[in-house]
Write a structure and sequence with these properties.
single chain; 114 residues; mainly beta; seven-stranded mixed β-sheet; 11 strands; 0% helix; 60% strand; globular
């Protein structure tokens, strides 16, 4: 089992920046991919950014050029969000995929006011 804990959400104004962090614990050696998803009210959960084993990074189309995902230590990764827009308002979930299981954090709210 892997446990994920996010931190760093909050309320910002459009154009500002925010950084989210995720800390993994437990059986972290099994993690293959890691990253972030988000879910706005009434919407499906969508990809924000994922680090894939081997070094590939996938970004959601709506955040390309504004968000950057990075692995900070063996068991922590972060999401730097710049030029935030009101449509970025959502609950952001830390994500980790192992061979069999997919793990999610509890989510952290990001609200961008216009």
């Amino acid at each position: 089992q892997v446990q994920l804990v996010e931190s760093g959400g909050g309320l910002v104004q459009a154009g500002e920046s925010l950084k989210l962090s995720c800390a993994a614990s437990g059986d972290t050696i099994t993690i293959i991919n890691m990253g972030w998803y988000r879910q706005a009210p009434g919407e499906q959960r969508e990809l924000v950014a994922v680090l894939i084993s081997g070094g590939t990074i996938n970004y959601g189309n709506s955040v390309k050029g504004r968000f950057t995902v990075s692995r900070d230590t063996e068991n922590t990764w972060s999401l730097q969000m710049n030029s935030l827009k009101p449509e970025d308002t959502a609950v952001y979930f830390c994500y980790a995929r192992a061979r069999v299981w997919t793990y999610w954090g509890q989510g952290t709210q990001v609200t961008v006011s216009s």
